Amino acid sequence: MIRVLQVVTYMGRGGLETMLMNYYRHMNRDKVQFDFLVHRDFEADYDQEILSMGGKLFHVSRLIPWSRGYREKLKSFFHAHPEYKIVHVHQDCLSSVALECAKECGVLVRIAHSHNSNQDKNIKYIMKQHYRKKIPQFATELFACGKDAGDWMFTGHRYKILYNAINTSVYTYSFEKAVTIREKLHVEQNLVIGHVGRFDAQKNHTFLLDIFSECVNIVPNARLLLVGDGEGRTQIQEKAKSLGLEEKVIFTGVRNDVADLLQAMDVFVFPSLYEGVPVTMIEAQASGLPCVISDGVPKDCVITSGLVTSMKLSDRPCDWAKHIAAQLNRKRENHLEEIQAAGYDIVTAAKELENFYLKKYGEES
User: Fold this and answer.
1) How far from the centroid of its chain's Cα atoms is residue 344's Cα?
2) Which of 44, 92, 214, 268 counts the highest number of beta carbons within 10 A?
3) What is the pLDDT of residues 315-338, one digit of tens each?
């Protein structure tokens, strides 16, 4: 058995973390075991499941790319754990820091994985671009969730697409299950507009509330189901209240039953400023859920016919609302064959990644 070190921020229920867990659950763990190097000292959502499957969790301090102390701690870790011949890094632009330390410590297979096609234009943007350009210098392998994410992160360099695959069978639409979940949410007679994502500027919840406000003008009994959590949640709750929507917006927090909640939705709305290939979009389509997305979401994620409508971020909220309301009476259908044909079935995808790790380990041993 080989052990592969996954380098992440922490293992909460975010998109890349959920993708990693999908692969981990479907690995032959007699052959390939995942361990995790995390950059937070609290227990995250997936930690206990990782431990139950035989994985290890190692904690280091928060990533400060220019800190000599941080780099020394990272190198001390790699020196103390020579068993890791493969390091798979999921820190987007800042992945070059861990990759450089791993290279200096003799780690032979160093994978950089792009999960996004852009970054927030905040005070850290220029610094992140500096480190992004260094990634190909220290990585031996480049992975991306889709073409836009790969082209942006690894400009001019060849990369491999690793699909954000899911357990397709879990998401098959069931009318009976939908009725049960809607009863639990007290939305039996409502149009349920859904969104899954952390409360972060990238996900554009502020604009989503503007869209929903217009939806209520068209369909007064509409409800907005927001699944997830994050630093921006309080701000969005306050905006919902200021718009007089506090009784119509449901904040579920972080949930482990997203597959069930998707059953209860009528339309999935995703107005992100940018994305890689969001796992939630694959899940929504596997559920047969009509989706209205922004032009900031790559076309890579559209893997079904007739389910996804793309709108411009510059379009007015009222125009978005008209398209959303038009989905109201659509019949839910099974699109699993399309999901599988596009390469997003986790059983097949996990086997391919498992074979990749084994081959690389064999080459370097």
Assistant:
1) 14
2) 268
3) 999 999 999 999 877 888 888 889
Q: What's the N-to-C CA distance of the chain in angstroms?
A: 13
Q: Which residues of 5-26 are buried (b: 16+ CB within 10 A; e: fewer)?
A: bbbbbbbbbbbbbbbbbbbbeb
What is the spatial distance between Cα 100 and Cα 104, in angstroms, rounded to a whole number?
Answer: 6
Which residue blocks in 219-335 are alpha helix, DSSP H? 233-242, 258-264, 279-286, 317-325
Query: 294: which strand partners?
Result: 311
Half-sphere exposure of residue 220: CA atoms within 13 angstroms, side-chain side:
0
Global pTM value:
0.90
Q: What domains can you pick out in the chain, each with its CATH number? A: 2-165+345-364 (3.40.50.2000), 168-341 (3.40.50.2000)
- Name the 3-class secondary structure at 260: helix
pLDDT one-digit tens code per residue, 249-261:
999 999 999 999 9
Best CA proximity match to 21, nearest among 46, 56, 54 = 46
Confidence of residue 217 (pLDDT cuts 50, 70, 90): very high
Q: Which residues contact 136 (CB under 8 A, 6 or more apart)?
A: 112, 142, 154, 157
Identify whether the C-beta of residue 324 lies closer than 8 Å to the C-beta of residue 269: yes
Tokens (6 digits) for 269: 């709305």
